[in-house]
Specification:
Layout lengths: L8 H8 L6 H11 L5 H14 L4 H18 L2 H14 L3 H13 L3 H14 L4 H14 L2 H13 L5 H13 L3 H14 L4 H13 L3 H17 L11 H17 L2 H13 L5 H18 L28 H4 L4 E7 L12 H14 L3 E6 L3 H14 L5 E8 L1 E4 L2 E4 L17 E2 H8 L5 E8 L13 E2 L3 E2 L24 E6 L16 H9 L7 H15 L7 E4 L11
Parallel strand pairs: 1-2, 1-3, 3-7, 7-10
Antiparallel strand pairs: 4-5, 5-6, 8-9, 10-11
Helix pairs in contact: 1-2, 1-4, 2-3, 3-4, 4-5, 5-6, 6-7, 6-8, 7-8, 8-9, 8-10, 9-10, 10-11, 10-12, 11-12, 12-13, 12-14, 13-14, 14-15, 14-16, 15-16, 16-20, 18-21, 21-22
Length: 572
């Protein structure tokens, strides 16, 4: 995620050559405007200069800029943005726009970051640094072709930075060009063999190619380099390099089957201080993966190419994979159907829906973890088993049928033993969807999550008897605005193969359980999910059309995708 900084060196020189400054002010000046000054000293010096009230206009803008640099070193991007905004009010400047845009980038607010980089480029002259940083923001948005174009412009401007090559390689990887990605990242390593970041990303590539030993070797060297020398660029988020190195090596160890080393690396990932969005996502994934490996009741993770899998309590016995598929695919699925609710409206069809989808997925070569009418303990166990299996999978599918709710912007799947009681923490009785997403978040896996659940808000009074005329029961246990669209699809998913989340109904609407043996959504999904040569988003378009027709437009399926190309569940 390397970014570069444009400094106000000329402005700083003008400030501290002013003859009117007393000796004490002259001593404060270098502390405030030297990028090697420790963050706290830098901020303190700038605070004291501002308090003197001797500067205004362009000179005061410079002080706010350097204090923003100090906040950036500490990873406090809100304060970076506040100080940079004040500096821009006093004097628009390329360097200030660049700094504020980079802070927005680290917060994950990519559109605003791009706007700031555009403003900087309009002030001119064109800068390789600005093209590079705008390329990072395009990459954050998943606009990889635009990112590559900006990295090209940065390199062509004469800025032969290893990070421009590295990030161009990451973008090529996201578009499926692993060889082009490897060439760019190798060039980054050639330009500066002391940098740990390119080695981290090459480790990801090796893992994508199934070469876990080389992935581990590159991760180990990256950790050594990161410990030997802290990042010299003040725009690098504190601790982000080691967090990334440990998390990626942990994933490689887990994929290899060395769970002891994986646990150690995940624990090390969690020890770092995460300030940027990527590091926070890496830690969220490490937390889930570590919990999977430290569960004392956990069986050894199964090989995702195996043709056998044990069934959890309440699950149907899995069918073996077709022999022709075993050697060519690593695809896993989680299928859960909850309908026999004890304390809220029971649903007749989720069990049928889950079994239909599980069969369809097994028929096309998926290893399926299937759970039927699961209480919270069984549901958590089934999900853990699936996430362990996903460690070496290239494609992971999740299908859930049953009640689903939103609490304060987070989505939860509802076990059959849920009991919503006044004064209680209802989230303690449910399973958070973000946990599943964090466990799957990875740059080398395609994730498809399909939720055939209601989209209602449990913070309002229960309406357990809600019915829809001529449609049978609905999958709602509360009235409200529905499940929340995901705020993001994960750091890994937006840098790698991609993630798609499909909901059986649009925001604020009700997912119908249906009058037949299946819900309208699962019935259509079962008919199309195994169609040979049908790309997954085209498949969902057909499903959507059937559901709209079957429900007379009362239900309109909805999806959110970061998929980077065409995905075929059954092959082209």
């Amino acid at each position: 995620m390397r970014r570069a900084i444009l400094t106000l060196s000329l402005l700083a020189a003008a400030l501290w050559s002013a003859p009117s400054l007393a000796q004490s002010r002259k001593q404060l000046g270098p502390l405030c405007t030297t990028d090697t000054t420790p963050a706290d000293q830098m901020i303190d010096a700038c605070n004291k200069i501002i308090a003197l009230k001797v500067f205004s206009g362009e000179k005061l803008a410079g002080i706010y800029f350097w204090r923003a640099v100090g906040w950036n070193k500490k990873g406090d991007y809100v304060k970076v943005i506040a100080d940079a905004s004040e500096a821009l009010r006093l004097k628009p400047d390329i360097a200030i726009y660049n700094l504020r845009g980079s802070a927005y980038y680290d917060k994950g607010e990519y559109d605003i970051a791009i706007s700031d980089f555009n403003d900087a480029l309009r002030l001119g002259p064109p800068s390789g640094i600005l093209f590079h940083n705008r390329g990072n923001a395009w990459r954050g948005k998943g606009e990889y072709a635009k990112a590559i174009a900006d990295y090209d412009s940065s390199i062509n401007a004469g800025r032969k930075s290893p990070f421009s090559y590295q990030n161009r390689g990451i973008s090529k990887q996201a578009l499926g060009d692993l060889d082009g990605a490897m060439a760019d990242i190798n060039e980054a390593i050639r330009l500066d063999a002391a940098l740990p970041q390119p080695l981290i990303h090459r480790a990801v590539l090796w893992r994508a190619k199934g070469d876990f030993e080389r992935a581990i070797a590159d991760g180990t060297e990256a950790i050594r380099l990161a410990k030997a020398k802290a990042p010299v660029n003040i725009m690098t988020p504190p601790g982000s390099v080691l967090i990334s190195a440990y998390s990626q090596r942990g994933l490689a160890y887990e994929a290899k089957g060395d769970f002891t080393s994986a646990k150690q690396d995940y624990a090390a990932t969690l020890e770092g201080k995460a300030s940027d969005a990527g590091s926070k996502s890496n830690q969220a994934t490490a937390k889930v993966r570590l919990s999977l490996l430290t569960d004392p009741t956990a069986p050894a993770p199964r090989d995702a190419t195996s043709n056998t899998t044990s069934a959890p309590a309440g699950a149907a016995s899995p069918a073996p994979l077709p022999t022709a598929v075993q050697s060519i695919t690593r695809r896993v699925a989680l299928v859960i159907g909850n309908g026999a609710y004890a304390h809220v409206t029971p649903l007749p069809n989720p069990v049928n829906d889950a079994r239909s989808i599980a069969k369809s997925l097994r028929d096309i070569g998926f290893v399926v973890n299937e759970g039927i009418d699961l209480d919270r303990v069984a549901m958590q166990s089934t999900i853990r088993d699936f996430l362990r299996d996903a460690a070496r999978a290239q494609v992971a599918v999740v299908y859930y049928a049953g009640h689903g709710v939103q609490v304060e912007g987070r989505n939860y799947l509802v076990p059959i033993d849920v009991a919503l009681q006044a004064g209680g923490r209802m989230t303690d009785t449910m399973v958070e969807m973000d946990t599943i997403m964090a466990g799957l978040d990875d740059q080398v896996r395609t994730n498809i999550l399909i939720m055939d659940a209601c989209r209602n808000n449990p913070m309002t009074p229960p309406v357990a008897t809600t019915q829809v005329a001529s449609a049978g029961a609905n999958r709602g246990i509360q009235a409200g605005p529905g499940l929340a669209a995901p705020a993001s699809l994960g750091a890994g998913s937006t840098l790698g193969a991609g993630t798609l989340i499909a909901y059986a109904t649009a925001p604020g609407q009700v997912a119908l359980d249906g009058e037949g043996v299946n819900s309208p959504f699962s019935a259509a999904l079962s008919r199309h999910i195994g169609t040979p040569g049908l790309e997954v988003q085209q498949m969902l378009t057909r499903v959507r059309a059937e559901v709209v027709a079957a429900t007379k437009s009362r239900q309109v399926p909805w999806s959110n995708s970061s998929l980077l190309g065409e995905v075929y569940l059954t092959g082209k």
